[in-house]
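Field: sequence (string)
Field: structure_tokens (string)

Example rows 1 and 2, in order.
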Amino acid sequence: MMKRSFLTLIFAAVSALFSALAAAPNADAVLAKVAASLSKPASTTVTFDVKANGRTASGTMTVCKRLFTFSSGDLAVWYDGLTQWTLQRSAKEVSITEPTMDELMETNPFVVLTGYKSHFTSTMVSSTAAQYRIKLTAKSKAAAVKSAVVTVSRKSMQPSSIALTMQSDSPVTVSIKRISHGKALPKSFFTFSAKNAGKVTVNDLR
């Protein structure tokens, strides 16, 4: 009788363990929902604060599928899916490139969320009733972003912060204040317009 009760307890404990493992959130599944929340709507606008090199700046980013425009402090970026224009307002210079995914991550940290599958391995760091914390580790040792810790609201499945470690080991922290969705935007919205920028020097690096 005692032996049977003992075996029953062992079976119950093992069953509880497997049930807990089955219910545990999968990092890739969470990230897939986060990426969808940014890229599936016709357009998504994110308002954020970014801290890097001891300085903090506010910024906004608008995404339409693979296209985006990004503005923070002295920097403004437009990307139409192939060509990227990077404007440094203080220098009055705009550089034109056709960036790789790795290069895109250097100017737009949100690309980490949409390009995680091919460039990072993901691990669930913690899971609470309020949020998930997921660590992304670059598959390539030469990657511009070595790792990132993404905090995700469990209720909205949207990111609340992204803490990046760059190749130089310098930290970049993005705190997301607001995410909103809107209508589809024309491709011209994601291309640089010299008319709106005034007189600038253009460096075509393609």
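Row 2 begins here:
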Amino acid sequence: MKRKSPKKDNDDNGSYFAAAGRTRKKKRKKIMIIVIPIIIAVAAGVTAAALLYKPTPVQAIDGVECHGSESLDYHHHAHLSVFVNGQEQHVPAGIGILPAPYSCLYWLHTHADDGIIHIEAPQAMTFTLGQFIDIWKQTKSDSQSFFSTISGMPVKVYVAERNNGQPQEFNGNPRDIELKSQEQIVLAYGSSQPATIPSYDFKGLT
């Protein structure tokens, strides 16, 4: 007796798997229809938030403002040396530069501990050493011990108004010294003076 062919069962199985495949495709299509708009909406929201984000506003110090980027329309450099009882002290890096959430730079600031004061403003303006000192005090909390140390100490001031010039003694209030291009300022606190009053070479900086 001849055995019957299982062709019909194979056809049924093929139809089942084909139908299952179509069902899976439909499910994936439905998921994509739901997911893709969500992804687009989230991306749009993130983009809008980035465009609308504004850093926390910062109050000006002595009329000197803090902006989110460097203002290079008026861009000059001065140099400050500080001595306490004859020993040179580093002028800290990061004076006038605030991290997040403020993320801004005051028009008077330092990038390194080399004593260079960056004068960067949206237009020509007059700035003084007193303004820079106040910005230093208010933006570098780790310098409070330094200012406590020099409080009440006598101070001698030396100024040179040209590159690599020899600073000469200044008679007057040091806070009133105008910060100018390639100006060198030396503050010598205490009863002992430095052995030599240094000059500074700006090496092309103006």
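free_text_note (row 2): Residues 157 and 173 are 9 Å apart (CA to CA).
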